[in-house]
Amino acid sequence: MFQLSNFYDNTNMKCINELGAFQVFEHEKDLSVLPETAEMAYFSSTMNVRKRQVLVNLNNSACKVQSGAMQWMLGNVNMETGVKSAGGFFKQMAGSAVTGESAIKPIYSGQGLLMLEPTFKHILLVDVSKWGSIVLQDGLFLACDNTLQEKVIARNNASSTMLGGEGLFNLSLSGQGIAALESPVPQQELVQFNLQDDVVKIDGNMAIAWSGSLQFTVEKSTKSLIGSAASGEGFVNVYRGTGSILMAPVDK
């Protein structure tokens, strides 16, 4: 049995979103400031530059977390690496090398609370089952239910690697469960495209996540190289098929 004081009743901590076992808390102000940093802290709070943290409520359940993201855990919570063998370790190391994600994502399980480290990024809570499978831009993954399957997927078109501003490999999540993602922009700014056997063309690397069912390529903005150069657009990222795309309207 445990008690947690000055947390849920802390007026400077506000729960701004929750889904499944995950809650997102936002620090309304940075109270630990010095005179020389007070001005920056004030304007940061005014402009929505605030620390955010994810609290995971474990109820005889488990979640997978980005390496180094745990701040504290309370109750009967255990941590394991999720590596079952030497072969599994080298497989995860290989996946880490090509996706930019951490090689080992610790798994926390049991009955209690798990708090993740503060971040200035915006936290998205996504029900992966509604996507079928979701492909993530590098650095987006923060945590997820351990019921989700993690897979490294390769580009199916060389042009997407050389010209698209994306890596050769990406992390994909599938199954039943919730994922917590670190977004460069808040949920209110994200544009979602829902395609039914259609196409979206985006000038730049601004899609942060998309359905695994979509085909991603990079193509000339017009039919000819001269036309593309004249238009000033050059090459665009193209997503075809049936599925969804989350796009940040500004490149941050």
Describe the structure.
This protein is mainly β. It has one domain (13-247): 4-Layer Sandwich (Double-stranded beta-helix). Helices cover 14% and strands 46% of the residues. The protein contains four helices and 15 strands. The strands form two sheets. Strands 1, 2, 3, 4, 5, 6, 8 and 11 form an eight-stranded antiparallel sheet that branches. Strands 7, 9, 10, 12, 13, 14 and 15 form a seven-stranded antiparallel sheet that branches. Strand 1 (13-19) and strand 2 (22-27) form a beta hairpin. The longest helix has 14 residues, at 86-99. The protein is globular.
Please name the CATH topology: Double-stranded beta-helix
What is the highest CATH level, the class? Answer: Alpha Beta
Would you identify the CATH architecture?
4-Layer Sandwich
How many domains? 1
What is the strand content? over 45%
Which structural class do you get from the secondary structure elements? Answer: mainly beta
Number of helices: 4
Order of helices and strands: EEHEEHEEEEEHEEEEEHE
Per CATH, the superfamily is: Mitochondrial biogenesis AIM24
Low-confidence stretches: 85-90, 93-99, 225-232
Main sheet attributes: strand count, strand direction, barrel closure: 8 strands, antiparallel
Rg value: 20 Å
Strand segment count: 15
Anisotropy-based shape: globular
**Fraction in helix:** 10-25%
Report the end-to-end length measured between terminal Cα atoms.
44 Å
Mean pLDDT: 85
Task: Considering the chains and any ligands shown, give keywords for the structure.
single chain, 252 residues, mainly beta, Double-stranded beta-helix, eight-stranded antiparallel sheet, seven-stranded antiparallel sheet, 4 helices, 15 strands, 14% helix, 46% strand
